Amino acid sequence: MHLFYDTAITEETVHHQMNENESRHICKVLRLKDGDLIGIQNGNGLLATAKITDANQKRCAISIVSKETEVAPSYSIHIAICPTKMNERMEWFVEKTTELGVTEITFLLSKNSERKAIKMERFESIAISAMKQSKRLFLPKINPLVKVDQFVKDHPNGFIAHCYDGEKKSLMTTFDNCSPILIGPEGDFTLDESDLAKINGYQEITLGNNRLRTETAGLYACMQALMRVK
Q1: pLDDT digits (tens, 9 = 90+) for 10-25
Q2: With 0-12 CB in 10 A as exposed, 13-18 as middle and 19+ as buried, what is 119?
Q3: Strand order in 202-205's β-sheet?
Q4: What is the DSSP letter of 44?
Q5: How is the chain split into domains, by residue range?
Q6: How do residues 40-68 score in pLDDT, each as one tens digit?
């Protein structure tokens, strides 16, 4: 069954009209007809099975047949990460962490960052596709770029991965089910950024003995946090 994404679908929805882009995809690209069934996710815990009642390329009408709901997770896995110079690597990170179960992603701007601008629409589109692919019912929240200094002040208490010396612990033993996890750029956080994070209650964590690429570190941190909460 083909899956589509529409935030307007709720538990009360009985009849609905898809937007023009989705209608074109349903009727012109996929060539679905009246009576065919499709799945619609709202990204907030609901999957509806719907029957096409009017296969119109501009305003495809559907009727809800059944609904499946899921309770939101009791934990929060929030990865705050500095975008890499190669945008494809961040796209990979968003895709894979969405498949695994990340709940929130914030992009950080460090003084050592090589990429200082991102395309939010592209990342959101990738997250939606990954949600469908992995059959997740919750879409992770994706936040725009914010400076590291501002983020740690706005979100005190968390975890930070860096390459400086320090007493570091594993997320497997320290993750508290909700605090953000900071992942630095390819050149690491500056020492001032690291120190400011610690002043604001961030604990230093280790991601193993190997030096990891930024996107790999983010994925590994997500996996460790998930293993801790499940």
Answers
A1: 999 999 999 998 999 9
A2: exposed
A3: 141-147, 104-109, 78-81, 181-183, 158-161, 202-205
A4: B
A5: 3-69, 78-229
A6: 999 999 999 999 999 999 999 999 999 99
